[in-house]
């Protein structure tokens, strides 16, 4: 058996190698919470489109309150 037949031939059913970002297919920095399955870079890019609102923190300059 040559290298081409053996390279990436092991089944990836679980673990980090089995999951990838649904936008860019990246495997690093994956956010799986709430079924997002997006890498952190794509999440920052599309967070507003998805409906996430940045929470008010002590470092933010605006004093907005959501009721």
TrEMBL record:
Family annotation (Pfam families): Ribosomal_S14 (PF00253)
- Record-linked InterPro entries: Ribosomal_uS14, Ribosomal_uS14_arc, Ribosomal_uS14_CS, RIbosomal_uS14_euk_arc, Ribosomal_uS14_sf
Q: GO CC: one term?
A: cytosolic small ribosomal subunit
Q: Which UniProt keywords apply?
A: Metal-binding, Ribonucleoprotein, Ribosomal protein, RNA-binding, rRNA-binding, Zinc
In its UniProt record, which GO terms are filed under biological process?
cytoplasmic translation
Molecular function per GO: rRNA binding; structural constituent of ribosome; zinc ion binding
For activity, the cofactor(s) needed are:
Zn(2+)
Query: What function is annotated for this protein?
Result: Component of the small ribosomal subunit. The ribosome is a large ribonucleoprotein complex responsible for the synthesis of proteins in the cell.
Q: Tell me its family.
A: Belongs to the universal ribosomal protein uS14 family.
The annotated subunit structure for this chain is: Component of the 40S small ribosomal subunit.
- Protein's name according to its UniProt entry: Small ribosomal subunit protein uS14
């Amino acid at each position: 058996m040559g290298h081409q037949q053996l390279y990436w031939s092991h089944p990836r059913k679980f673990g980090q190698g089995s999951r990838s970002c649904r936008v860019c297919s990246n495997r690093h920095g994956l956010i799986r919470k709430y079924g997002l399955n997006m890498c952190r870079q794509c999440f920052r890019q599309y967070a507003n489109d998805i409906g996430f609102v940045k929470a008010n923190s002590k470092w933010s300059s605006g004093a907005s309150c959501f009721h």
